[in-house]
Fold:
Amino acid sequence: MSRSGSDWVRLQRRTARFAVIAAFTAVVLFVLVAGLRGIALVALVVVGTAMTAAALWWVLTRRGLVRVCAMALAVAAPVAVVWLGVTSGLLWLLVICLALGALAATAGWEALAMDTAHKAQPVAATPRPGRPFLIMNPRSGGGKVGRFGLKEKAEAAGARIALLDPGRQVDVAELARQAVADGADLLGVAGGDGTQALVAGIAAEHGIPFLVVPAGTRNHFALDLGLDRDDPEAALSALTDGVELRVDLGLIGDRVFVNNASFGAYAAVVQSDAYRNEKVRTTLEMFPDVLTHRAGPRLTVRASGTAVEAPQAALVSNNPYRVGDLAALGRRDRLDGGSLGLMCVKVDSAADAAVLLRGGRAPGLTVLTAPEVVVEADTPRIDVGVDGEALSLPSPVRCTIRPGALRVRVPRTRPGVPRARPRLNWQRIGLLALAR
Structure:
């Protein structure tokens, strides 16, 4: 082993030892100082958290006075726990021990991360496009196209621009096909993820690269490509100084999606005409019936030999989302893994909602990967949210993945995708700490 390798191993072991010492100190300090009162306070925190989760379930599934009482309980439970911590005189101790616990967890994650090298998604140097064509939506993201001067900057880099007219309906897929027929050797979109998906499908169909300009509201696809969502004009530098990634595309039927397809409660709510203008009110009005199966279809989700009956929500994603890392929920480590991600939630009572706090170990949560996911229903059609677009598709709905189908041109210099935290395995951390 090289000297640098030996130094790396020593650093890993020291980091693991620090994690174990910090965790041990937190536990011993709490037990010695707080004693039985501390154990009782921890029990109250657990009970209060479970009560809050149960109350939130009632808020979503009940109406009228019951909902009002549930809201009051959801607020009162954590307030009561904090008040009991203050009056017991142990709040300072709890804060110190939580800080030690956070240090232990951070050091443990760092030690475990050294077990495997971070493999960045491979990129390829390719010639600068000669006839790039970009579709821009001036309304996306509250007017980012105009605010950042994207049209003028793209034209200065040699791109032809199609600026969508907010006053009339435009078939962006047909617009992209016509651009390819006219000789475009790159397609791009400055807009939301729904438009990105439509044009990405055309680019993949013709084997030409695709450019993502994060000018929408959320821009999840851009985030997982490692782009800066707050600086859409930086993405345009890929026109003159870029590299290419190969990423997968999801398919729902014959329609492309770059992020995910959502079934169940959320998909039913976004179908409502009132949702766009009154999101919270529409959600609270519809959820009591949708979550308790009094309205909407009963779904069955099948993937990799697993069948989930009657989930309230199912999310099929183009590559799996991170699970268990609260700091990076809603992110995907890679877009070239060649598999769909599936998350299903099944909650039938307030007790089930409280158990969901266990995360990935909760019986009501199903998380897996598969090359194909089939969603069936007891109705002829199923409501689906595809990259934020509301659709209604005939049942059953089949989702598949096309590995490496899309060439994406990105700036040579970009923030990149942060490394995922490994699952906190204290047995492994202990072995590293004790190793000589």
Notes: The chain has 13 helices and 17 strands. Residues 112 and 428 are 8 Å apart (CA to CA). Residues 3-61 form the longest helix (59 residues).
